[in-house]
């Protein structure tokens, strides 16, 4: 009782008031300091968000869908899957990772400088460009059936040259002004550029002398005259990316049997893509019969075969 009365007496309160005031002042300073620190941190956070938005805008302009109709942004999961698939095909992970990265930089460069775009998803394109040179084709003759803007052939020329090769390209395409595909609506390309031979020549020139020297045959791959015009050699690489119907892919596979060099690499685009079931159906049906081709595997939505 005495201690309590001592603490509550007027004399005690007067004696303890300076101590209480000092404590209150320290508490006030700490609160003001914390508030100031919090305001500074909040301002720093706002500046960081503003800066990130500016950087993201630049990234979107470089890699986003604007002007292309699809995004070229890379995500960790799909990239790791592609690394694994290419490694299974070529047996060398270091080379697979290196070539996929090179193909990606090349894809961005070509679409930045060229007319139109490369058809297909980012991982699919990088898988094809990165894998073909590593499969060591038996010669440098390349046939592309269906080219859209010719940009993939330009990229493949550069990838082959990086591997010490001297590629020679032949392209077969109807150049109908739009991308033709059975069962789809005819509409302008999302890039706004016309699909024609002039655009293809412009893009091939980006690959240097080998691109500029590419041989272009206008027509459908099933036409006898078209086939006769380009069947004058055996091809070390054949890329089938034309008619995606079951009948169309089967016809191109049967033609490839005749013009593929021993050991040739055959690439079929959109293999296993649910939007284009005819591609996988045709490959499975063709491989079930008598054929020179052996299935090597797939990367993204591209199948790779080897000719005997």
How would you explain this protein's 3D organization?
With 308 residues, the chain is an alpha/beta fold. It is 54% helix and 14% strand. It contains 11 helices and 7 strands. The chain has a 7-stranded mixed β-sheet. A hairpin with a 2-residue loop joins strand 6 and strand 7. It starts with a helix and ends with a strand. The mean pLDDT is 87.
Which short descriptors sum up this protein?
seven-stranded mixed sheet, 11 helices, 7 strands, about 15% strand
Question: How does the SSE layout of this entry go?
Answer:
Elements: H1 2-8, H2 10-63, H3 76-90, H4 93-113, H5 122-134, E1 141-145, H6 151-162, E2 168-173, H7 197-205, H8 209-212, E3 215-218, H9 224-230, E4 235-240, H10 246-259, E5 260-269, H11 277-287, E6 293-299, E7 302-307
Parallel strand pairs: 1-2, 1-4, 2-3, 4-5
Antiparallel strand pairs: 5-7, 6-7
Spell out the helices and strands N to C: HHHHHEHEHHEHEHEHEE
DSSP strand tally: 7
Structural class assignment: alpha/beta
Number of helices: 11
- Rg calculated over all Cα atoms: 32 Å
Q: Give the rounded overall mean pLDDT.
A: 87
Please report which band the strand proportion falls in: under 5%, 5-15%, 15-25%, 25-35%, 35-45% or over 45%: 5-15%
